[in-house]
Amino acid sequence: IYEGGRDGDGSSIIPSAIMEVLVCSESFALINHGEIKNLSDLGMRNIRGLKFCSVAECDALETIIGSVRVEVLDAFPNLEILELYRLSNLKSIIMEEGLPMQPRNSCFTSLRELLLYNCLSIKKLFSWGLIQQLHNLESISIYFCEELEEMISVEDNNDYEMLECSREVLPKLRKMTFKYLPNFVGFVKGISLFWSSLLEVEISGCPKLKRLPFGVNNNAPNLREIRGKYQWWEALEWEDDAIKTRLSPLYIGF
After folding, report:
1. Which of 158, 159, 170, 181 could be disulfide-bonded to 128 (CB atoms 3.0-4.6 Å)?
2. Which residues form the Disease resistance protein At4g27190-like leucine-rich repeats domain (predicted)?
């Protein structure tokens, strides 16, 4: 756990002693650092071995990986759990400027659990480039991210076509929790994806979410439980009544 700012002489954004320990560590927590803008500034060599990473109250942090350059395409290859708390300026997980993400890259390919709590500036959770890397992701938990609008953002027509063709993303995803996201409107715009491993969904405090991405062509065959407030469930819009009929037995209200 490291809490604070620069090295004692001000020469390094993280003290050299911390860097020396980091390179052989599997767990790292960064708290209340006022200058670091992205975790890739810690150095690719230093973060390759991490399996657990928690970042909290770092007000300057804007993204986890600062840009998609050759040297950062394989960042965090062993990371299994990423927790992000109270990062007021976090805008993205990866700033995709430069080289596009490719499936052969190992960036975040071991990630199993992702948690965001009270990250007030992020609007889109995953890009198409990033989503291709997350084939081991099992759990997504998002709380109090008031600007978040979409889970998967597709900006480029080519990416949209590729996503529409593949349909299945996040093949190991088992659980999604979305709570207190006042601007969250949907999972991915205009595409019905296949959620092959999804078991549980919990949604609360998402008043703009009017439709669920499940139930079309049995695209979530293993879904067992949908939790949410009764008023929200009753206000949902359905493509047809058959979808509501299919999903209603899975609903658990509170």
Report:
1. 159
2. 104-225
